[in-house]
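Box S2. Input/output pair 1.
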Amino acid sequence: MDWALFGELAINGALTGLMYALCALGLVLIYKTSGVANLAQGALVMTGGYLVAWLAMGLGIPLPLAILVGLACLFLMGFLIERLALRTMIGQPAIMIVMLTLGLEILLRGLVPALGGSNLRRLDLGIPAKPLIVADMFINRAYLFGGAVALVAFALAGLFFASRRGVILRAVSDDQPASWAVGIRVEGAIALSWGLAGMVALLAGVLWGSVQGVDWTLSLLLVKALAVAILGGLDSIPGALVAGLALGVAESVIPGYIDPLVGGGTRDVVASLAILLTTIARPQGLFGREHIERI
């Protein structure tokens, strides 16, 4: 067995998985607070990439400043989505709220490229294209940087949920009626989670925009985000991190050995299988809480 090849595939896959986990973090933040699966997260990632590309390449704003402006804009966008769209659905069946997020995904997937252009634009983060060579293994520097940013984002999310505001969000997640009863503004907490999900989406859009470029295909990261969130547990932040690593390694190692035998195409199957098998065998995911209702 070529251990150098295996190590190279596993390490690059793990770093890619951390970037998948960053996409899934927005899903987890919203579900953890409101119990809603946000199917518009992929479009938010795409919108974040388009926004930073327009600010940096269209208006000539320095990239660090463009990212900061983009973070503020995506936070506001997420906040307004909850305030103007989701809040009007209070009292409606949960499936209708999910369908609303899916409609938003489809709308943004068509509207943003129509306004921003369909040409591929690659964000230059100043990362050298030359791979990092460690013990005969070639490590992609862009993935290494993206994985590091993802780890920082998860660390900040952990610190946030340990703060007073984070404790409020956790209380809303555990029991919304009880939170209302003790004076917590549940609607404001849910809007905050949407704003934070927008910021996470922008970071993911910038990182993936530097790797594969900015165009409508960034929205397809929704499938990877869903696979990670479902596998790790829709309400578990650590679960998203672990599941991202697992999915990334599987998506890299399995095609690395199987594709030469079958002619390719196995990479896209891994995420679909993860969703299908997890939903059948363990619906709450690896680290999610199992909800049992008395009848």
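Box S3. Input/output pair 2.
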Amino acid sequence: MEQFKNYINGKWVAAASGKTYQNLNPADQRDVVGEFPLSDAADIDAAVKACKAVERSWVLTPAPKRGDILRKAGDIFTRRKEELSRIMTREMGKPTFETAGDVQEAIDTCYYAATEGRRLFGFNAPSEMENKMNMSFRMPIGVCGIITAWNFPIAVPSWKIIPALVCGNTVVFKPSDDSPHSANIFAEILEEAGLPAGVFNVVHGAGAAGAALVEHSDVRLIGFTGSTETGKKIAAKCGEMNKKCSLEMGGKNALALMEDGDQALALEGVLWGAFGTTGQRCTATSRLIVHKDIYDEFTNKLITRASKLRLGPGLDPDTEVGPVINERQLAKIEKYIEIGREEGAKLALGGGRDDGPKLGMGCFVKPTIFLDVTPNMRIFREEIFGPVLSVTKAESFDHAIELINDCAYGLSSSMFTSDVNRAFRAIRDIEAGITYINAPTIGAEAHMPFGGVKGTGNGHREGGWTAFEIFTEWKSVYVDFSSKLQRAQIDNY
């Protein structure tokens, strides 16, 4: 069995306690990916101390030079793209064509953020006083703790880590214990690109390591992607300790198809949105809202097409839908399927685990579709995080908007219509951080803001230029060259 270690201060080290855990391939749980450190507060403290030791020298490295290192990292990600995609598929399950896209997001982020090293613009403004100049600058925050989920082991960490580094921060990364191997490759790539030892550190483990990172007094910011339940706890602790936090949490995203929408395009969009990544995306299409005039026609097409999706190991090139991440998540999905049955929704496809001879050793759930789902049902309202699609009938366009917004989350949304007026009304009226017109709810691009409203986040946006707002603080500077005391608001009026 391959043994993996933490990456602290440029060295590979075991957990201080010596404890480890095994990571399993969700497509075949007899396949042990490796043994990883089960770290605790001592390991987090060592990583934070490494960050603090090099903090000043990294801040004094010019931002364009920091960007140069990240550009090189993009080149190395490109070179290792196929290798890394297979590593990711083995540890978290989704097909290799998806994990290759995951790596591409990191490549795009590296190249984008590298150029932003020359564009960390401040603002100047005229002073209200004579012979005085007003300026503002972006300043690094300090040690940033990054905690991410398992479903995008390279893309999502890159959205946080790469901008944080370009801004002059140091980083302690606590990856999910369900997809740890990718984090070590991330460290290898940054090291090869020339990142100084101590600037970036990886500490493996479960909840104890994450809690220690959040609670460490020298960690100035937490960037988190994961469940809303955990995110709220992190926000409470960060509030108590007066530290900055950026939360990207759950979603219950809806795709609405109107009677004038392109049904063929919508069909492909629903299949990709609902069953891509086995439904294990915060942006997954978990609710489908169909206008009453085409409800029966479209749902029949959908069930026929979804029944042909190829379920299997992600390393098989013919696979379209891989496994869910582990037995715990599989049990949760099965429970929600049972809840849907009990609530009176019509189970039209799937309905549980695929434990046949080919897939029985993995965590496979059949693509599942419920029809005639109503807003009072839990499968309409609660995040399932699996290949389960709930379909609801809309009486009108306005009713469709109402159904989309009848949700505790507000991450992604979608409207299929050929009416430009309807499209712009949807853009205006849907309560979500992301809205797609004539495309499914998934497909974020690295240079655009990513995040949501309501239960999805706390107001920050990752991706694009907005990420640099998270990882910098503003400093205002006043230079008075009048050679006399000038008291703003007092002497000027």
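Caption for Box S3: The longest helix spans residues 96-116. The CA atoms of residues 262 and 416 lie 7 Å apart.
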